[in-house]
Amino acid sequence: MPSLKSGSNPPRAVVFFGSFELDVVNRSLRKDGEFVTLAPKAMELLVLLASAEGRIVDKQEIQDALWPGLAVEEGNLTQTVFLLRKALGETSESPAYLVTVPRRGYRFVLPVSEAGAKKRSWKNPALAAGLLLVILAGAGAYWWRSRPVVVAPPGRLVVLPFANMSPDADTEYFSDGLTEELINARTRVEGLKVVARTTAFQFKGKANDIRQIGKQLNVDAVLEGSVRKQGDRLRITAQLNDTANGYHYWSETFDRNVQDTFAVQEEIANRVAASLSGKGKQARRPHAGTSIEVYNLYLRGLHEQHRVFNGHLERANALFAEAIAKDPLFAPAYAATAEAFVQLAYSSQMEPKAAFVRAKHYWTRALELDPDSAEAYTARAACLLFDDHNLVEAERSFQRAIAINPYYGEAHHWYSHLLVAMGKTEESRRESLRAIEADPLNVSIAAHLAWHYNAVRDFPKAEKAARAALAIDPLHSPAKFFLTETLRETGRFAEGVELDASTQSNPADAERVKSAYRREGELGYWKQLLEFNLNRRKNGAFNAYSIALYSARVGRKDDAFQWLETALKEGDPSLLNIRTDASARSLRDDPRFDSIARRAGLP
């Protein structure tokens, strides 16, 4: 932005207005000695208006200063003004500092003063001495409030979703992708833990108080910013703040060509490293050698992949395939495709055996291209666990993924499943908690802890974990399912039925669940769930394991074992849980049960 001057006077280093102190050079704002957090554009606007000293600054001048060379909508300026007013504690209806001049622009109405104002001369020495004592006492208090802040390098960082300020809302994938790449750039500071994507994206589109985020996520620093992509031009703003005291590590705006996206990511990652630790490593340039076209296809694929159901995984794989066709050496697209096929298998959207065969092809190629891909190793481990039933080799792959990226929550999550199957329940609990530490607002990972406690029959803790997951997302079906199981196993069957009914997408189905229970009690309830699952099977779901369990619940033992054989043939990943599932309890004294368990790779 242009140099901030008032007439021919040099720019001020520090200006005061009301109870605020604005450091122009370091771009920081304090109120009564306490740091005030400002978005980068709001800070630029404040510096511009305060430096104008009461002059009306028209909208075009502001836009030229804040968005040079870009045609922006007036709504961007309006939003920036709103954020500034919010930080200053005022509204447009009752402004204390910032006045709107209709059809022209804005004016800063409170006079500002520089540090080091002219001294007054006192004719009464006694009065001067008395005032001096008051001033010294006040200065001591002020020094304590505004003393230099000593900030230790943080141990935990969250990268908040970068706001999409682009004219085209369809480019949302680009700002999301930038956020994800910065989360994944984990070589920035040795020992720094970075909160995972799913938790970070819980704050997308919300007005965030970084101090509150610090408490909620137990993080020490927040990286946030915005992205504006218009044609071939790209503007990225980023700022890094301490959550405990608002200390502003740095903020910067990057005006580049879209082709420079990877260089900007690298630069931001290195700035974070330099700001937080003198020992920070240089970040490896992400996806060096690939084109921005391929990278965009990959980002769009990730955007679809995170939605999982209703055809989104298939659309994700189509985009990844297009990226691979244009750049056969682009490892992240192979790893993402492998993970998507594992998701298709586990969610019963594709025949598991076929899905795992496809996944193996892609994680194999991903590891050939990038031997340090935690995502590819996690997909490999899932295939070894669920398809090959090779628990020993699967464990090695999970451990390798975690060694590469200790903060990849999904690796800890799936590793916990393996450990329960191996009877290592305490290790499973630790991995479940590590997954939550890495990704505390990922509702699937939070719900998994309830699954773990149900598996080891610690129902008080299972209920607490399930309710904690539902506090994140009250509509999350797996969390409701795990809580339903807890309620059934602790003698609260009717309460469990009501909760289970609430998971049905069709209100008529919800009523069928409740009326079946009213009519025939527990047996009627299980019959209704069996009917639902048989209908799902007819509509293409690969849910043989679920049908087997509900068959067991209604006393059809032979049917149950036939469906278990089908599940084994199809490679149903849920077979891993057969020794701990409560619904399989009635089958365990049958010799056929141990045969199924052994062929599923269970000890």
Summary tags:
single chain, 603 residues, alpha+beta, Arc Repressor Mutant, subunit A, Rossmann fold, Serine Threonine Protein Phosphatase 5, Tetratricopeptide repeat, six-stranded mixed β-sheet, five-stranded antiparallel β-sheet, 24 helices, 11% strand
Explain this structure.
- With 603 residues, the chain is of the alpha+beta class.
- The protein contains 24 helices and 14 strands.
- The strands form 3 sheets. Strands 9, 10, 11, 12, 13 and 14 form a 6-stranded mixed β-sheet that branches.
- A hairpin with a 5-residue loop joins strand 13 and strand 14.
- Helix 1 packs across helix 3 and helix 18 packs antiparallel against helix 19.
The third-level CATH topology of the domain at 157-286 is Rossmann fold
Structural class designation: alpha+beta
User: What is the CATH class name of the domain at 157-286?
Assistant: Alpha Beta
Quote the beta fraction: 5-15%
Shape annotation: elongated
First-to-last CA distance = 66 Å
Q: Largest sheet, described in full?
A: 6 strands, mixed
- Chain-averaged pLDDT: 79
The poorly predicted ranges are: 1-12, 114-154, 278-286
Portion in helices: 40-55%
Q: How many individual helices?
A: 24
The CATH architecture of the domain at 157-286 comes to: 3-Layer(aba) Sandwich
| CATH homologous superfamily classification of the domain at 157-286 | ABC-type transport auxiliary lipoprotein component
Gyration radius (Cα, Å) is 29 Å
- The number of distinct β-strands equals 14
